[in-house]
Design brief:
Layout (H helix, E strand, L loop, with lengths): L25 H9 L3 H10 L9 H7 L13 E3 L3 H4 L24 H4 L7 E3 L8 H11 L11 E8 L9 H7 L5 E9 L2 E13 L4 E11 L4 E2 L9 E8 L3 E2 L4 E2 L12 E7 L5 E8 L5 E9 L5 E4 L10 E9 L2 E10 L4 E2 L2 E2 L2 H8 L15 H4 L6 H10 L4 H15 E8 L38
Amino acid sequence: MWRLGDRKIPEGITVDGGSDWFLLNRKFVEYVTFSNDDLVTKMKRFYSYTLLPAESFFHTVLENSPFCDSMVDNNLRITNWNRKLGCKCQYKHIVDWCGCSPNDFKPADFHRFQQTARPTFFARKFEAVVNQEIIGQLDYYLYGNYPPGTPGLRSYWENVYEEPDGPGALSDVALTIYYPMGHPVSIHLYFLADRFQGFLIRHHATNLAVSKLETLETWVMPKKVFKIASPPSDFGRLQFSEVSIGTEWDAKERLFRNFGGLLGPTDEPVGMQKWGKGPNVTVTVIWVDPINVIAATYDILIESSAEFTHYKPPLNLPLRPGVWTIKILHHWVQVAETKFLVTPLTFSNQQPIKQEEAIKLHSGPPKNAYMEQSFQGLNPVLNIPVSAARAEQARRNAALLGARLDAWVDSLVSSLWSAVDICSVGPTACPVLQGCAQTAWSSLSPDPKSELGPVKPDGRLR
């Protein structure tokens, strides 16, 4: 949506706005639906070309109508507004407008539930992938503790794929990573104590001992790839660094929505750093591709109060598949590094990749030029040797297809991910396999906190 120009508000009208959560009585609804008086007619015309009219139309008509005395200025909600974080024009790629969006509640916000002075029935926003602890705190505040030994209280599972969705619901990167395990039955994100623990992939496998197909669930977890320099320098502000797809950075909640950071050659990555308090400093960030081509380097000024920084270098695509390294330097001394995987694709447009597509997507940018400027002169300075043998191996890898391409993907994925555990969804001929319903991490394990029963006579859920 695009702003085409300014408009004048009709004279004599007091404009108001606010929440789009409201209750309207029947007489007022009939008035705005059927009345042909000037107020309603003009307001309908005016708001026909307005973004988010529900946040202002009813408020304005009500306050300027004969029903103004019926207004109660309370929408019965606590909304977690944090203008500093929620008003960042983060929707500019969708609409020509700088709007604000409320933040998710976190434990530091709990006092707001205890201090509310007006009738309140609802609160927003809550999001378990951002923070589940606050939901548990509020649950305890309202209903008391769960019985001792209740399972799953600190766990959260979020389904991102089910078999009936079809392969079309998965990106080429996801298809590449999941399909070597067999057609996935389901995929879940798994969180424990508000930390992402990896993916739970339910899939079929043949038990070779009895030649029968069984359904398993496998927990795959990302390996730790962020490392502080050893021995650590006297520069201690950096706490963490991560890379993911640029469009998946949530500036309001300050996290990547692409949990697991799955990236392919045509994705545009963003580097994020988390900082502790301290003096103003300038750091240098260096991006190194799998054959030690320095793809980008830039400086970031970290102000004393900064908590997060993020930047998307304008890299030419496609990115070379393999394990990339980001080095963070202070006064040109390395203080930390992190790694991320650009996965070669076995699928293109959700079909098995063809030879010409593989070569095009897996060879890196033309002439190894990720940017107009070359950083080749920094290789000896940073002791990052350019290896002709690695370059030749990368050239050969770019042409791989079939089983050899699958083997290359497997070797790369296993370098940054590990299969932690496995359980059996149904009957199994393997006596050492535990059933998923009895496995604490499984998406099939009991989750009493998420079960909804009938409302009790006193109006409570539990």
